[in-house]
From TrEMBL:
This is Carbohydrate ABC transporter permease. CDD domains: TM_PBP2. Belongs to the binding-protein-dependent transport system permease family. Its main location: membrane. Residues 70-268 form the ABC transmembrane type-1 domain. It is a multi-pass membrane protein. InterPro entries: BP-dep_ABC_trans_perm, MetI-like, MetI-like_sf. Keywords: Cell membrane, Membrane, Transmembrane, Transmembrane helix, Transport. It is found in: Cell membrane. SUPFAM superfamilies: MetI-like. Pfam families: BPD_transp_1. The chain crosses the membrane at residues 12-32, 69-93, 105-127, 147-167, 188-210, 247-268.
Amino acid sequence: MTTLVRKPGRTLAEIVTVLVAAVVAFPLYWMVLTALKPPGEVQSAAPWTFAPSLDSFQRVLTVSGFGRYFLNSLAVALVVVALSLLFAFLAAVALTRFRFRGRTVLLVMLLVAQMVPVEALTIPLFFLMRSVGQVAPAFGLNELGSLVLVHLAFSLPFAIWMLRGFVAAVPAELEEAAKVDGASRFRFVWQILFPLVAPGLVATSVLSFIHAWNDFLFAKTFIISRSENQTLPQAILVFFKPEENDWGAIMASSTLMTVPVLVFFVLVQRRLVGGMAGAVKG
């Protein structure tokens, strides 16, 4: 009979991992708990409730236009994910597989673009979207197209940098072998290279989706007067009242906002983990 001896270092690492996971998960637990508490217990500090209630969720779901806000947020997030993946993948291929003048400058500009605070660009982007709306009304103020353009602009630099590493990890000899077999560059990019960088595409899609889904600043700035084009984070403002905030409804709406992100991650996490394992094995 063999006895398994656990190393002290491994046990300590596991304990630290559990503690970190508990710290990270506690705010989510408290959010769901507050959403399930009856009105009389919302202000209490008790970390449990013996009378869970769905009243807060009912108040949220009966808000006028809540379903429309949900669909608006979902549409913006999905369009941003699709466009950012397409453009970032093509840009990463160009920056990795081709040599051209200004390539290094472009890479540095992409890096610098990620360092600019979002708040510093909000006002200039407001005037830019107002001017764009005079030429292309679908992308002007009060339109969802303005949110798509702005989120795409902020998602692309990071997405390109991230995918550039995955594309560079694919050996150039693989492309040469594909050419010998008669594959064109277009066929190599979409039938060979695209599946190989799937882990990067999935990781990028998760980050782009979260960034667009949780946005409040740009949605509040660009969607001014057309309430039918407001997004889900703006719906939470209904429950912030001068006399007393409805914390149960605020936490319930926050919980409902978290669900699509979790569902999206669950749908892609198998591809993400499996693809990374395959990439490491290869």
